[in-house]
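quick one: 2-oxoglutaric acid bound model?
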Amino acid sequence: MQELPIEPSGIFWQDNFITPEHEQELIDTFRNKLQWPDRTGRTSLHFGYTFDYKTFGVDPDIPFKPFPDWLQPLIPTTEGRPPEQVCLQYYPPGAGIPPHVDTHSPYDQLYALSLGAPVMMQFQRGEQRVDVDLTPRSMMQMSGDSRLHWTHGIKKRKTDTLPDGTVRRREDRWSITYRWVRESGVCDCGDEKLCDTAQAKLGIEKGYRWKEQQAEVTESGT
Ligand SMILES: O=C(O)CCC(=O)C(=O)O
Ligand SMILES: [Fe+2]
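yep, here:
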């Protein structure tokens, strides 16, 4: 994988992760052989472990869902072990995903494979906005700044306007995201805007300060 020479830093990229023929077979599987949740808009299917946002760990009540046969050859091998969680998402034309960072503390590395139609992804940090065209069959790794300090999202809209002014219609798209558990369960990036570990620390400190203030008030008898 090659790092894209852009801001944010840390986006690694590989074109043609699979062949167009393989992509067509997968799309046929997605369309005709999988049971999707019955809802409109973006829908997801999860494999591997399920993350519990209450305990910020693997949910012990939901058993590991084995990776299906079609998924096996799509697992990146560059992390030295398979990911703990894989999510297949379907985006009908017009669907998107709000700007977010994938929660820092539970997961470390994050990869995404794009299939079907291309779509523009926006990376954002403050006033800085950068569009990245998620072309079909490309594998993207988000690490460093792109993973921790910039949000990413896909606008809900029917067309994308390319840098040369061409208006491109959205069509059916699928993505597969891969997540590797962060063994420590804490992130040390310190980004109080985007990092759940940093925010939890801040919350605890605020709680202490509040308690200390209460104690002072009680001690002084007022
Ligand atoms: O669809 C994609 O390529 C990215 C999805 C995403 O950001 C996520 O699932 O966290
Ligand atoms: Fe994400």
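The CA atoms of residues 2 and 168 lie 26 Å apart.
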